[in-house]
Design brief:
- By secondary structure, the protein is α+β, with helices and mostly antiparallel strands.
- 48% of the residues lie in helices and 12% in strands.
- It contains 6 helices and 3 strands, in the order H-H-H-H-H-H-E-E-E.
- Strands 1-2-3 form a 3-stranded antiparallel β-sheet, with no helix packed on it.
- Strand 2 (205-215) and strand 3 form a beta hairpin.
- Helix 2 runs antiparallel to helix 3 (66-79) and helix 2 (29-56) packs parallel to helix 4.
- The protein is elongated.
């Protein structure tokens, strides 16, 4: 660089003096610092999120797959891959959604003993099974819409006279309901399912279904009947 007439000396002599504030930056130091900070903080945030979800998930017993959450976050922190972090984030979102649904339903269906109701409140085990069945049924309905499959719903044994039915009734009470009674139904619907040999007594048992909708001014009957096409 000290030799006379070399390229460096010529460029230096011919270059126009420009203040540093007006020169184009070689790189954006703020952006680089933010990226490095994100890379350092991201593993800590994911681990803290897993710990928080596991602590809150004690109410759902063994329904929360803690091993999958921990393994996905561990794999993402080890590899640093964006795809692994997105996979771990998907598991965290699913767990948080399940916990929020369970907590909301448990709070709404919980019956306190001081409300003056003659029907005893449901036990924690019955409430736990009922809420988890509701969540599973709702998720299966979303999946079955694409396959055009009808969900059977969640049965409430004892109807409104049972502990679970009473809890649902209290949850659905409105301000205009007096005496703890719901208004008269506007429509009654019945679904009957059975299996019989059809079209003859020697045929195989095939499923049948009949739907009835009864209103004050009209009624509808919809049937779906199957026949054995092999052993007629």
């Amino acid at each position: 660089m000290q030799l006379p007439d070399n390229t460096w000396v010529k460029c230096w002599d011919e270059a126009m003096p420009i203040p540093v504030i007006n020169q184009a930056r070689l790189f954006n130091e703020s952006k680089i610092a933010e990226e490095q900070m994100v890379d350092l903080v991201r593993p800590v945030l994911f681990v803290a999120a897993v710990v928080q979800v596991v602590q809150k998930g004690k109410c759902v017993r063994n329904l929360l797959n803690k091993e999958v959450l921990a393994d996905s976050v561990y794999r993402a922190n080890r590899s640093g891959s964006r795809d692994d972090f997105m996979e771990a984030l998907k598991h965290l979102k699913a767990a948080e959604l399940f916990l929020s649904q369970y907590s909301s339903l448990h709070q709404k269906l919980r019956v306190y003993e001081n409300i003056g109701n003659l029907i005893e409140p449901p036990s924690e085990d019955d409430l736990f099974s009922f809420i988890t069945s509701l969540i599973e049924d709702a998720s299966s309905k979303r999946e079955s819409i694409e396959r055009n499959v009808i969900s059977r719903g969640v049965p409430i044994f004892g109807a409104s006279d049972g502990p679970l039915g009473n809890a649902v009734r209290i949850m659905m009470e409105r301000d205009d309901v007096t005496g703890g009674k719901l208004p008269a139904p506007a429509r009654r619907q019945y679904i009957m399912r059975w299996t019989v040999p059809r079209p003859s007594a020697c045929s195989r048992l095939v499923p049948q279904r009949l739907f009835a909708s009864i209103e004050q001014d009209e009624f509808r009957l919809c049937g779906a009947f199957a026949e054995d096409s092999v052993y007629i």
